[in-house]
Design a protein that fits this description.
With about 130 residues, the protein is mostly helical. About 55% of the residues lie in helices and about 0% in strands. It has one domain: Methane Monooxygenase Hydroxylase, Chain G, domain 1 (Up-down Bundle), CATH 1.20.58. It is elongated. The longest helix has 29 residues. One of its GO terms (biological process) is regulation of multicellular organism growth. It holds the Pfam family FTO_CTD. InterPro entries: FTO, FTO_C, FTO_C_sf. This is FTO alpha-ketoglutarate dependent dioxygenase. One of its GO terms (molecular function) is broad specificity oxidative DNA demethylase activity.
């Protein structure tokens, strides 16, 4: 089923799909976060050539921005008025979600600060 914006929903059917949000991919999400965290540390490493840093920043920024947009969209659907009015057995579970200080996750759920920092680094490096 193609995802549509919350305002375009005409029925509650799409919310059943939200309930299936990739629990099976939580581990993959952790792996993504670990790898991303490793790349972020590499970008901050002293002595990394500017050209190489910019290539890494450009590559990772696209995937982080896409992931952040998907998380925002998912969270908005999960918290929407329509979702709140569903019977309990049909309501989507608003997970995975974790707080910024969750030490079991390498990156926060909300990637806004990281994306902003990377964009800033990329802009600083441009002549």
């Amino acid at each position: 089923m193609e995802w549509r914006k919350v305002s375009e929903f005409n029925s509650v059917e799409p919310y059943r799909e939200v309930k299936k949000w990739p629990y099976c991919c939580i581990q993959h999400g952790k792996n993504f976060s670990r790898m991303t965290n490793a790349v972020l540390h590499e970008v901050k490493r002293e002595g990394l050539p500017v050209e190489q840093r910019n290539e890494i920043l450009t590559a990772i920024l696209a995937s982080l921005t896409a992931r952040q947009n998907l998380r925002r969209e998912w969270h908005a659907r999960c918290q929407s008025r329509i979702a709140r009015t569903l019977p309990a057995d049909q309501k989507p579970e608003c997970r995975p979600y974790w707080e910024k200080d969750d030490v079991s996750m390498p990156l926060p759920f909300d990637l806004t600060d990281i994306v902003s920092e990377l964009r800033g680094q990329l802009l600083e490096a441009k002549p």
